[in-house]
Fold this sequence. Notes:
globular, about 475 residues
Amino acid sequence: MRQWSPEYKQLSSAVGVAMVGVVLGVVIAFPALALDAWRLEGDITLNEVEAGWFVSVAQTVSVAGSIAGGVLNDVLGPRRLLLAVLPLLASTWPVFLACVHNLPLLLSVRVLQGLLCSAATASVYIYPCEVIEARRRGAVGVLPDSAFSLGFMLTYFLAAILHWSTIIVIMPLFFLPCVLTVFLVPESPSWLLQRGRVEEARAILRQLRAPDVNVDKELLGMGPLDECGGKASMVKQPRFLLPVLASIFLMVLKEATGQIVVVLFVVHIFRKVDVGILPHVSSMLVGAARLVANVACSFLVGRLPRRTLLISASLAASVTIAILGGYFFRQDSQVWPDWVPLACLSVFVVAYGAGIGPVTCLMSTELLPGAVRGLGSGLAGSALNASQFTLTFAATQAGSGFYICLWSYAAGSACLAAFALLLPETRNKSLRQIEEYWADVSENLTGKRWCLCLRRGVPDDCEANTKSKPRNNDSELVRTV
């Protein structure tokens, strides 16, 4: 690796971890497609309630798994957490195949997969944002969502050409390159700095940055905002609580668009309508549209304000999913042309892939201060998974009233556009600047001036605290800069 340029090492590390989302996307999407295959073959029969639990039980346990993953991300670091989780997740697939005829065991395997998948997800989103330079954070930060989209499309493609049991057998092979990639990347310098390991963080940044980059200045921007020895209390300090709540609401509204239902039930939707194309082919077309949109987003997010892109995409998704709801409401009357479902779903996934999904996931990470980034991501992921479970389980029970679900997704998309107006713009801002924004908002709300020694100079009370509670690593870092 010594012959690689620092820029190449930086990009390869961030992109390599982001691409772990591909196998996680397969874990999420596979059960619904397996269920569709079982219904056609008649070999494995599940009633509606059992099918609903089979599809959505992973989202149920992910509520706890996301919180655990966020905490472990702070304790172990994103790299070590992924190295612990990915081999375990790969080993669940042979067990999955062995217990497909035993519903309790089958659900147990899905519970384990849901826990492991949700625990790994936080690190997949956090690591690229913490390793990459601020000027590239937008383009690289949207890659995890693109990786999940690629995982969904890969699942659709494999289901179209292979038997479901064959897919399960070969799935562990997909995890091998992921484990190898994560093993080779360095630990997050931001996490190391939060743990007081300044020299290790500096050494890694020197590997990942060009020689003319002031590494110590960047380290200073990664460090804790409060240099006076205080502990990060999310409940007591609004500068931590407000961004965590914003991240949680952003994730809930992202799921309120109904994207998880489209991912899990796209084949089933196309079986209910005749668009003139085979259901699996239609599904792959929709998946390809989402993936292309994700790629387009990596260019748009660096050129357009985050909020503008998110609002535009949310409004487009709201309109198209409302039209699709109208199609299902009047499906028997033949008022709508047969091509409407395919067109609406394609436009919806483009709007989601080019704006809603990548931008919300990127901003939910950017908004979080470093001291609570792992826990905040875990709480946001927990809220996301609770929303996914509610939506998927409701969709399995909707029956002929599916159009009501679609109209509720249209309303959720509109609410996401409205909420985006309340968020700060994060484009071209360092993580430190975003953290300072929340400190200013907190100060305006509470009237309390937080100790922001590095940003505003050391006031008398802060200086006294610093002298009484020296922090050798941070003091050394400040002197270096």
